[in-house]
Amino acid sequence: MNKQVTVVIGAGSIGQAIARRVSPGKHVLLADLKQANADAAAKVLGDAGFMVSTAVVDVSSRDSVHTLAQAAVAIGAVTGVIHAAGVSPSQASPELIYKVDLYGTALVLEEFGNIIARGGAGVVISSQSGHRLRALTPEEDLALATTPTEQLLSLSLIRSTGTDASLHAYQISKRGNSLRVMAEAVRWAKRGARVNTISPGIIITPLAKEELSGPRGAGYRRMLEASPVGRAGTPDEVGNVGALLMSEQGAFITGSDILMDGGVTASYRFGDLAPN
To answer: Which of 13, 14, 151, 203 has minimal Cβ neighbours within 10 Å of its Cβ?
Structure first.
């Protein structure tokens, strides 16, 4: 029997939660910028009975992403790709956010779209932030979706200025992720594969805990309190949605974005978080 492979890029809580649901009987290749992160995740999954190996990847480097894709193919048929790597506005400059979250995601979609197996599926973890960006023009949408990967960072659209430059870069990048996935779904279909995005709100992970206690923490806490659900989400809840999108139950879903933010975006548009 041919070995099937699930590749997890970004070995944090969300990537692990999805992998646990879609990878029984498969080989899980855990890739992260830091070997220590990949090793820690591998121990958790390995102790739970999964077949696991690790790799180091820098998603902002084409050579690195290409090497990872080739390493995955050497193990077996790549039937699952979970892309959960990224940096947040509190962590990074606008330039790094664009390079990792926008360009890096385009690289992953391109390189793994070249080798994904028939019947395979991918999930990209985007963010609710992409839904709170202003409406873009049709030309801007098209540029984010279809500009050749190596030209993405030259788009005039991604020039960020002002005190919220990192947040703006993050919102543009996450909007770009969902648009890029929509366009890539057409290309992935030629290999008999599907790909979608999930746009979570605040999900309780080590990074989220750091954000909640950081300079943007008060705003995040107000966001949660004023949302219809009134709380943050959990990695397992994202895992459930990821499992649907990657399974046969989600076979009619591709090129789509699932917003799961506890109603935060709804509150920004129609509730207590709406601008006065």
So the answer is: 151
> Which residue among 98, 174, 220, 268 is the active-site one?
174
Per-residue tokens: 165: 């430059």
The CATH number given to whatever domain includes residue 16 is 3.40.50.720
In tens, the pLDDT along 217-248 reads: 888 899 999 999 999 999 999 999 999 999 99
Residue range(s) defining the domain that contains residue 253: 4-270
**How many structural domains compose the chain?**
1
Domain contains 275 = no
This prediction has a pTM of 0.96
Q: What does the pLDDT look like over 154-194, one tens digit per residue?
A: 999 987 655 589 999 999 999 999 999 999 999 999 999 99
174 is catalytic: yes
The question of whether 170 is a catalytic residue gets the answer: yes
In tens, the pLDDT along 55-83 reads: 999 999 999 999 999 999 999 999 999 99
